[in-house]
Amino acid sequence: MSMAQQATPAVDTPPAPGRKQSDGRTRQRPLALRLLARPEVGVFLGAVATFVFFLIVAPPVRDGSSIANILYASSTIGIMTLPVALLMIGGEFDLSSGVAVITSALTASMISYQLTLNVWMGVLLALVLSLGVGFFNGWVLIKTGLPSFLVTLGTFMILQGANLAVTKLVTNNVATDDISDMDGFDQAKALFASSFEVGGVNVKITVVWWLVFAAIATWVLLRTKYGNWIFAAGGNKESARAVGVPVTFTKISLFMLVGVGAWFVGMHNLFSFNTVQSGEGVGVELIYIAAAVVGGCLLTGGSGSAIGPVFGAFMFGLVQQGIVYAGWNPDWFKAFLGAMLLGATLINLWVRKSATRR
Length: 358
What we know:
Layout: H1 31-36, H2 39-57, H3 64-89, H4 97-114, H5 119-144, H6 148-171, H7 185-192, E1 195-198, E2 201-204, H8 205-223, H9 225-235, H10 237-242, H11 247-273, H12 284-294, H13 307-325, H14 333-356
Antiparallel strand pairs: 1-2
Helix pairs in contact: 2-13, 2-14, 3-8, 3-9, 3-11, 3-12, 3-13, 4-5, 4-6, 4-11, 5-6, 5-11, 7-11, 8-9, 9-11, 12-13, 12-14
């Protein structure tokens, strides 16, 4: 073979120095789009805009005590919104969460007063009942395959009727008796309904509990195996089962977690006002769900965070109190909530499309 017929070996020429080339598939999206893809960023910006708006139109909002009241209103919504949000990430939602709060408070009050027990016995039995309601919702959903809308709508009606009927039967009234002079009341009030002073302003303990629960929920979602199970069960439960996710346990435990939230808020209501009105709680579940949706949780499940619902609850608490401070008719509150919910849903949809567009 002649030298001319021999193949010339290929020479690898290193690329010229300069900007690294990309084929488009590995191109990194701009930082702004990556931030907008986070479910909590949109609601954070909305919360800031809403806060600035009320600072302008309602001068009393600028006072420290007004800020404390706004945070308190937000915390009573936010504590319950957190487990509702986790449940929604897991692919389900609970229409009975509002009346479950009142059921828990009524149970603790009537058991303690009617049986002349230390109030802590009523508190613990109310927790057991709340966990039982959550377990019932999850168990029925898993065993029947019915949508959570139907299952929890049934539970909502059962609890609503039982709250009124049992309270009238036991107390001959639509409200429970005052338990403020019973054993254990002061200790329970300190845990669930006390306040402390910061810079001369009284801050309710529920604000602290709200932030603590949000931190725990965020850690669970991002750092634990259970958090992965929640996202997987909400995204595609059959695929999740195929890779070993205990979907049944995850969904039932999430419903029970909503029960724990209902119990805690119920105890706060009881030890704040010493008595409970049996007809309350109707419609509040929609506020919890709306705050979670505004916070970036999808009704279809599999997406969301714990931080987003914190800002969602803050927006609702801010609007609730801001309308009063602005001197407007409080009947507009629900109209504002509906507009916020629709607007947040459309913004989240636009943000997701923009963030995934190349």
